[in-house]
Automatic annotation (TrEMBL):
<dbReference type="GO" id="GO:0022857">
    <property type="term" value="F:transmembrane transporter activity"/>
</dbReference>
<keyword id="KW-1133">Transmembrane helix</keyword>
<feature type="transmembrane region" description="Helical">
    <location>
        <begin position="399"/>
        <end position="424"/>
    </location>
</feature>
<feature type="transmembrane region" description="Helical">
    <location>
        <begin position="168"/>
        <end position="191"/>
    </location>
</feature>
<dbReference type="GO" id="GO:0005886">
    <property type="term" value="C:plasma membrane"/>
</dbReference>
<keyword id="KW-0813">Transport</keyword>
<feature type="transmembrane region" description="Helical">
    <location>
        <begin position="81"/>
        <end position="100"/>
    </location>
</feature>
<feature type="transmembrane region" description="Helical">
    <location>
        <begin position="49"/>
        <end position="69"/>
    </location>
</feature>
<feature type="transmembrane region" description="Helical">
    <location>
        <begin position="366"/>
        <end position="387"/>
    </location>
</feature>
<dbReference type="InterPro" id="IPR004638">
    <property type="entry name" value="EmrB-like"/>
</dbReference>
<dbReference type="InterPro" id="IPR036259">
    <property type="entry name" value="MFS_trans_sf"/>
</dbReference>
<feature type="compositionally biased region" description="Low complexity">
    <location>
        <begin position="474"/>
        <end position="483"/>
    </location>
</feature>
<feature type="transmembrane region" description="Helical">
    <location>
        <begin position="234"/>
        <end position="251"/>
    </location>
</feature>
<keyword id="KW-0472">Membrane</keyword>
<dbReference type="InterPro" id="IPR011701">
    <property type="entry name" value="MFS"/>
</dbReference>
<feature type="transmembrane region" description="Helical">
    <location>
        <begin position="14"/>
        <end position="37"/>
    </location>
</feature>
<keyword id="KW-1003">Cell membrane</keyword>
């Protein structure tokens, strides 16, 4: 039986896998490039400072446009934005692979980031619409959470394999068949739901303010803060302008007749708390993946492929929990109770990583870290996404989806910039004190991992004090056609949104 003739229920699950394939392509691209940077530099003649723009151009466009793309999806239709984003991302991937100059690659990476933002911003919104029953929704979000959180480690493995066996150009060319195939299936399987219409949120000043604030904020983190320090004049200047634009955006949305981002979405303690926790956890974990890969390569002497394989256990454990068990746990114990041990496991993994020696043994020093990390992420992130989407009305699901992705992106950018800077500063200090090169590098990594564990500890405090326990009995709402309103365990109900079936 083909996808287009499958029963409606099966079609929804096939559509979920299509959406997750699109998300995996986006997530992979964020890390698959990292292992190919030396080859790209040699081939296109990048300077050391210019090489960073291969990553930064993508991050600035991606992080800056997520919130706007999510809201536009609510207004004009999420399927349209998803397909348009796929087309733009795939076309930009072709340009990246064909690039023969540094300038062409940087411009193509910026366009690719814009396409990635459009594609990923609306996926969660479509998932919660397709799966309104809490139990099914928890399972679907578990699948998405695995793809979104595990794609980074898969990207390290894929990037190393492709770069070593073919060339760096093919890390972009492989997106072409994936993007085209995903678009063709999505066009058939996804419901063509009409949006609210631009009249419900055509807030051009708000759009310009929030996009400018996010792009400038991400630029400040990945450029002057990472290169010149957080106290440098350019960092303070750009940071102040970004904060001023953000404040102007909030003031605009509080008074606009048809705001681009209705501020009521932040009234839910669970939605606000979940996004704050995600920033903290992603900051610690993103820095761990980046610095952990450096430890494996620079200290232990692993090559790119072996580095990717070293992170594979984390991916396997994460996938087993996210796909096989997260739905049962969230349904039975509630999202908050499921998330708490996950945060503890992530903190424990970072603390364990903070004690790895110079001559570390993978089976003794690193495998436990990978298992704990996979356990923590597999428990925490599906529950976090359930909470982050719980307070959104059906007509604001795209906005909430874009917000979830934005906090993850900002958390990753902040975590990478802060932890990498602290690690380098600590390593330089240890080297000046007489430590050997490898010992100094390892000491810098230790310090960064301790900071990451501290961020996870703060996330645990936020979870215990801000989030409101959800009632496991809410899973039974599906039987009565009701769904709990996120915003705490106040027992408030509303009719479930109509299930989106493929036409």
């Amino acid at each position: 039986m083909t996808a287009t003739t499958a029963p409606p229920d099966r079609r929804r699950w096939i559509a979920l896998y299509v959406l997750c394939t699109g998300m995996l392509m986006i997530v992979l691209d964020a890390t698959v490039v990292n292992v190919a940077l030396p080859d790209i530099q040699d081939d296109l003649g990048f300077s050391q400072s210019g090489l960073a723009w291969v990553v930064n151009a993508y991050m600035i466009a991606f992080g800056g446009l997520l919130l706007l793309a999510g809201r536009i999806g609510d207004l004009v239709g999420r399927k349209r934005i998803f397909l348009a984003g796929l087309a733009l991302f795939t076309f930009a991937s072709l340009l990246c692979g064909l690039a023969q100059s540094s300038g062409m690659l940087v411009v193509a990476r910026f366009v690719q980031g814009a396409g990635g933002a459009m594609t990923s911003a609306v996926i969660l919104g479509m998932i919660v619409t397709m799966f309104p029953a809490p139990r099914e929704q928890a399972k679907a979000i578990g699948v998405f959470a695995f793809v979104a959180s595990a794609g980074g480690s898969i990207g390290l493995l894929a990037g190393g394999a492709i770069t070593q066996s073919i060339s760096w150009h093919w890390i972009f060319f492989v997106n072409l068949p994936i993007g085209i195939g995903t678009a063709l299936l999505a066009a058939r399987l996804l419901a063509d739901e009409p949006g609210l219409g631009l009249g419900h949120g055509t807030d051009a000043p708000g759009a310009l303010l929030v996009t400018g604030a996010l792009m400038l904020g991400v630029y400040t983190i990945v450029k002057p803060a990472a290169e010149e320090g957080w106290g440098a004049a350019p960092t303070l200047l750009f940071g102040a302008v970004a904060l001023a634009l953000l404040a102007a955006f909030v003031a605009r949305e509080a008074t606009a007749r048809n705001p681009l981002v209705p501020l009521r979405i932040f009234r839910s303690a669970n939605v606000s708390g979940a996004n704050a926790i995600q920033i903290l956890l992603v900051a610690g974990m993103f820095g761990m993946f980046f610095l952990g890969a450096l430890y494996l390569q620079r200290v232990l002497g692993y090559d790119e492929l072996r580095t990717g394989l070293a992170f594979l256990p984390a991916t396997l454990v994460m996938g087993t929990l996210s796909i096989g068990y997260s739905e049962r746990l969230v349904t039975r114990y509630g999202a908050r109770a499921t998330m708490l041990p996950g945060i503890v496991a992530i903190a424990a993994a970072l603390l364990w990583f903070a004690r790895v020696p110079v001559a570390g043994d993978y089976w003794v020093d690193l495998l436990p870290v990978m298992v704990l990390l996979g356990l923590g992420a597999g428990l925490a992130f599906p529950a976090l996404m359930n909470l982050a989407m719980s307070g959104a009305r059906p007509d604001e699901a795209g906005l909430a989806s874009g917000l979830v992705n934005t906090t993850a992106q900002v958390g990753g950018a902040v975590g990478l910039a802060v932890l990498a800077t602290l690690s380098a500063t600590r390593a330089d200090r240890l080297a000046q004190q007489g430590d050997g090169q490898l010992a100094a590098l390892t000491g810098g990594f230790h310090f960064a991992f301790l900071i990451g564990a501290g961020l996870a500890a703060v996330a645990l405090v936020v979870a215990l004090t801000v989030l409101r326990p959800s009632r496991p009995a809410e899973a039974g709402a599906a039987a009565s056609g009701e769904r709990a309103v996120g915003g705490g365990g106040r027992g408030e109900r509303r009719p479930a949104p109509v299930r989106a079936e493929a036409a």
